[in-house]
């Protein structure tokens, strides 16, 4: 059991627990374990299952006493809302730009066809508020492809953002949670 | 650990702090002495953890007072006793447990009457 206490000491040193406090905790622990042994018991009588995990035991004791800071949450847990909404915003912007350009090109083509029938470019200006944008779309055929690319990337990004957010929220939101709940045995709704 | 022990351990974990305050109210005690007092009342399953982190939290929260004193023929020990705030927490804990126990008792009685032939 000395090995257990030594392991605790190493953990307290690693966590930056002041020596006087670490010595006090080690002395209390040692005395209690010795007493349990003298009564025919074992370290488990004192420590429970913690007897098999000295580092975890030492850490939780030090944190509970307030002599060391609790382990910081992992950045991914702390930042998931920011990342999710950031990704969602960017993806939505891309999808919006792509949709406007794709929609604009289709409108321009349609309006252009109508314009040719009813009297030329002035008709286009009658139908659309942004003739400059439409002119660019019409003049550069590659823009259509680029617009489609933006739209696809945006839609995929929105999907990924939703999945990412659902995963890090612990499954507390979304339709999957409902399905999982309904799938439990014993649930009257199954 | 069997299923019954696991359930018992989980139930105890939620009220172990109140139980510790209760055994402390009988008089100052050091760590292992409190374990023995709990065991004498049938709470033998300390379970997955131990009482030391819990005692540390009670001390940090000001619910217990500590002093170091010699034990019977052994090395000096850290004795824990209830602080005034701890006495209040014990009373509040007793009320909470009473309400929880009544609610569970009610639910279990309902289940028993439903399955009874």
Features:
heterodimer, A: mainly alpha, 9 helices, rod-shaped, disordered C terminus, B: 117 residues, 2 strands, globular
Helix content of chain A: over 70%
Average pLDDT for all residues of chain B: 86
End-to-end distance of chain B: 33 Å
Task: Please tell me what the overall shape of chain A is.
Answer: rod-shaped
Helix and strand run of chain A: HHHHHHHHH
Would you write up a description of this structure?
The complex is a heterodimer of chains A (190) and B (117). With 190 residues, chain A is an all-alpha fold. In chain A, 77% of the residues lie in helices and 0% in strands. Chain A contains nine helices and no strands. The longest helix of chain A is centred in the middle third of the chain and has 44 residues. The radius of gyration of chain A is 33 Å and the shape is rod-shaped. Chain A starts with a helix and ends in an 8-residue tail after the last helix. In chain A, 24% of the residues are buried. The C terminus of chain A is likely disordered. With 117 residues, chain B is mainly alpha-helical. Chain B has four helices and two strands. Chain B has a two-stranded antiparallel ribbon. The longest helix of chain B is centred in the last third of the chain and has 32 residues. Chain B is globular and about 50 Å long. At the A-B interface, helix 2, helix 3 and helix 4 of A face helix 2, helix 3 and strand 2 of B.
Question: Secondary structure elements and their pairing?
Answer:
The complex is a heterodimer of chains A (190) and B (117).
Chain A: H1 2-15, H2 19-38, H3 43-47, H4 54-65, H5 75-118, H6 121-127, H7 131-139, H8 141-168, H9 175-182
Chain B: H1 3-24, H2 31-40, H3 51-60, E1 64-70, E2 76-82, H4 84-115
Antiparallel strand pairs in B: 1-2
Helix pairs in contact in B: 1-4
Short account of what is shown:
The complex is a heterodimer of chains A (190) and B (117). Chain A has helices at 2-15, 19-38, 43-47, 54-65, 75-118, 121-127, 131-139, 141-168, 175-182.
